[in-house]
Amino acid sequence: MWDFMLEYSFDSFRLKMYNDIKKTYQYAQLNKNIILIYCNNIEISISIEDAYEEYKLCENYNIILDIFLKNIGNYLNQYKFNLNYNKVYPIIKSENFGKDEEYNFLRENYLLDLDILYVQDMDETFRFLSVDDIDDFTYLKKRAFENLNKIRNIIVKLDEDLEIYSFNYLTDYSSSFFLLEEVRNQIIKKLGKKFLVAFSSSTSLIVAKDYPEYIDILKSLIDVDTDPHKVSEHIYKYNNGTMTFAETKNILKIIK
To answer: Which residue, of 47, 126, 213, 242, has the fewest CB within 10 Å?
Structure first.
């Protein structure tokens, strides 16, 4: 039976579209209902829910697949890379992020199992910078942190009855704000020099008083975070400039 005669359920459509896109973009990843594509250091997100709505209208899977593949190709061509120091930023990611990519991402260890990578904001997406993209890392890092520092945000309580805070509004750099001394000092004024930290995703940074019962609450907040651009599932403990894992199973790892 031909594809266009089939009535795909959402789940079967989801898997088929992911597998077909992966034939062209081998580094595509499936995260719930989002297909993430990393190509030429550019990150592209595709909503399978939106694609399925289009499929229900035209009832032809092959047409939908061709449209999305064409759009992806056009998007990549549109963003042929020119380094712009006014749009580079540091971003916190897992130490394993991008390790299997064909490009050698520019990165440095931040703490424990987290790295700092560098991206250029391409308006609708990020381009992760590679070692081959730059000539002067010191200058790039300086400009990236200056650009991040220009974005203003404040931490607010998530619940009046709990000493748990996040940012007043979400940005693509929310978790990376922790890199800034000004932001850490803002947190210290609220929580003191010892507190818990969750780097849930690119758009989420959660901090809380160092109470044992808050660890499970933070882990629950990580679980319900819908941002597909995950950073870490762990809870960290900040203690006067030192970071350790807060969970018992990771308690032996420490960095200053």
So the answer is: 213
